[in-house]
Each structure stands twice: as C-alpha cells, then as structure tokens.
Amino acid sequence: MRTLFRKLAPKSLLGQMLLAVAAALMVAQTISAVLQYRASEQRREGIALNALAFQLVTEPRFDFRQPDRRGAAAMGRWQRLRVQKTEESPLLPGEVRDSQREAALKAILADQGVQPVDLIVLTRDTVNDPFVMAQLREQERTEWAQGRLLVAAMRRDSGPEWTVARWAVGGPDPGQLGALIAQTLLLYVILVGGLAILLRRITRPLAALADRVERFAETRQIAGQLEPSGPEDTRRLITAHNAMEARIVALIDEKDVMLGAIGHDLKTPLAALRVRIESVEDEGERARMAHTIEDITRSLDDILSLARVGRPSDPLERTDLAALVASVVEEFEDMGDAVELGETDRLPMKLRATWLRRALRNLIGNALRYGATPHISLKREGGEAVIRIADNGPGIPEGEIATMMEPFKRGEGSRNRETGGAGLGLTLARAIAEQHGGHLSLTNRHDKAGKIIGLTAEIRLPLGT
C-alpha cells in the first residue's frame, strides 16, 4: 500500500503541498460533517421527544406528517390523528423498549410536573401500527404507510389506561448534505486555488534554479545565470547560488591556469632531459632513463586529463558507439595484443569520442596487464548502453573494489608501469563515464566453486546522452 502511494503521489513540491492541503481540508470537512450530522440528529431527537411530551400532557389532535418517497425531509403528506387512549399494552410482540429515550422523555415530563407510573418508548414501522393503519384505511390513504414511527405510551396512575402518542421518524435532511458539498467545493476553489497560485509563484523560480544547477553541473559555464525572482527567501537563494557559481568558475579557472603552468613547466625540462640522455654512452642506462622520463610524462598526462575531465572543452557529437569500441579494439590488435571483440549492438548516441576512447584504452590496458585475452562486448540493456571488458586475471579482493577507483590506488604496491602504473587509469575511466551521465563498476567473476576467475569492468551510459 505504501509503495502504491509513493508511485501515485505527486513528486513536485507544488503537487505535494496541494495534496496535503486538499487532504487536510477533506479531513476537516469530514469532521465538520460528522459534527453537523450529530447536532442535526440531536436537534431532531429533541423536537420529537418534546412533541411526544406535549401530546402526552395536553392530548391534542396533531398533524401526523408522513415522509414521501423522495426523502424523509419532504413532509408534504399529512393526516390528522388523535392521541390514543387504550387499555391494551402498547408494546406489541417482538418489540423492544428504548430505555435511553424513555429516560430522556421522563426527564422532560418531570420538568412539566408529570410523574408517570409507567412510560414506554419504542420505534416501529408505520405498517405495523394498528391505530395509524386503521385511520389511513378509512381515508383510503394506505399508500402513505411508509417510514417509521416513534411511539410513546404513559400511564399516569396505577389504572389500566395508557395514553399513546406518535411521531413520524424522518431521515436526515438531504438539503443539508447538498449544502455541505457546496461548502466544500467553495472552500476547495478558494483555498486550494489560492494556494496553488501562491505556491506556483514560489516553486516556479525553484524549478528554474534546479534546471540551472543541472546545467551548471554539466557545463561548468557561468553564462545563463538566473535573475532573482519570487518571494524574498527565494530571491536570496538565487542570489547566493549565482555568487557560488561565480566563485566555483573562478576556482576552476585558477586551477586550469595552474595546471597549464605546471604542465608547461614540467614537460619543457622533461623534453630537454630526453635530448640530453642521448649523450649517455651506456645504452642500458640510457634506456632506463628514457623509460623513467616516459613514465613521468604519462603520469603527468593522466593527472592533467583527470583535472580537465570535469570541464571538457569539446562538445558532444553523435557517434556510433559500436564503431568506436571496435576501433579501440583494432588499435590493440594492431599492436599485437590478444583482444576479443564479442557481440556489439549498433548504438548511435551523443558522446565525447576522444574521452571515451581514453577510458576504454585504460580499461582494456588494465585487463591485458593483469589477465590475458580480454573480451569486450557492447549491448543495449533497457535505456542504457553497456560496455563490458572481461578478463581472466586474479580479480580484486571484494573489500578493495571500491577503493581501487580512487586516485593513486592500485592492486600492486609499486609504481612500476609494467605492473600497474600510477593508479590513475580506473579513476580517469570512472570520471569519463560520469562525465557522460553514466558510471563504471568492477565485478569479480567466480566459477562454480566460488573461486575468482576474472574481473569484469562495466561502463553504463544512458542512451539519452
């Protein structure tokens, strides 16, 4: 039940507020209806008991008004009846006395100075009342014998004579229900309608702010900031957010300038060192030095790429993802690496091809480094494109999978490029996947005995990108 309510309930602030107000108003009107109904019933009960008391005390002729078929409150048909005097018991076989009404009627009679020896109050159908039916038959009005009667019988002394009075029991007034419905509709129009207008004024700038936050998270561009609007609190929120965006962009610009300077200042002396080592006579030493310089250069490239991935300069372009995956696999095959390309679904989508190639190269390179003959596939699953790179290596201990995608975290302790590098490949691949609105996950594969037989790296990208 709770799950169904969550599915059907509105998700927006405006919808939830209106639903809450509508529900509160419905509860309030329900309570009001119950209280009005109880008050109406008490009023009708008081009228009936006082009328019976008046008849029992004064014994007048009275108008017996019988409800017609349209409702208990339509009292147009009536018959002149007399208060009955009889020595027979007014209690017919099978009838039950109403002790609560007897006590109430006795209190009313006591206020008039009447202390009956015996008092009976009961309710019966009109057709079961011999006295009323006899008079209706005399008038040939038996079709009026509908509804119920409230019957009160009193003995003033110990004699056998009973004074019997009757009162037609009607139902609740249908006009009262109609008035309550009209009142409820009017309240809904005024309160819910007015609140909807007010909340719309509040939520419209909040919705625009939410859209702006999403765009800024994707582009990191300050262009298109919102003008403050709405209530004072909302205007202050938009102003503060604009200031925060400006500060974030300034920090990112400072970071880019700093990283550019670092890259330039480091790559220039590295290039000079590469030239100088050519003068080293020992070939083995020269090769080791060159390898060290290449290692530093690649690490520097990884660090700079990781810093730039959150603010890409190249736009999204429509690309056939299957062709991109196949081209990356061909690169490894051309270098003599054993890589298998499995089933691929043709999935044209908008992406940054250069960045995604970088992520795939990192993942396939890791699979080749720790396993043999990685298997790459591309499939469409629901609304996502799923790229899987499966190897047959040693996998990763279950407790370390999450930390392996953190910067400079790796399974092998050294920084040797041949055994694992600087530990930025997985971090960069995850950042690129998230840049495209997707995510990267690592999962161990097990055999039937539960032994790890390899690792599967999986990139999931939404097809809407």
TrEMBL record:
Keywords assigned by UniProt, alphabetized: ATP-binding, Cell membrane, Kinase, Membrane, Nucleotide-binding, Phosphoprotein, Transferase, Transmembrane, Transmembrane helix
Bilayer topology: Multi-pass membrane protein
Cell membrane as UniProt keyword: yes
Reaction equation(s) it catalyzes: ATP + protein L-histidine = ADP + protein N-phospho-L-histidine
EC number: 2.7.13.3
Domain spans labelled HAMP: 200-253
Main location group: membrane
Enzyme class of the recorded protein, top EC level: transferase
Pfam families the record matches: HATPase_c
GO molecular function: kinase activity
InterPro entries the UniProt entry points to: 2C_sensor_his_kinase, HAMP_dom, HATPase_C_sf, HATPase_dom, His_kinase_dom, HisK_dim/P_dom, HisK_dim/P_sf, Sig_transdc_His_kin-like_C
Localization, UniProt: Cell membrane
TM segment ranges: 180-199
Domain spans labelled Histidine kinase: 261-465
Keyword Cell inner membrane in record: no
Protein's name according to its UniProt entry: histidine kinase
Organism of derivation: Alteraurantiacibacter lauratis
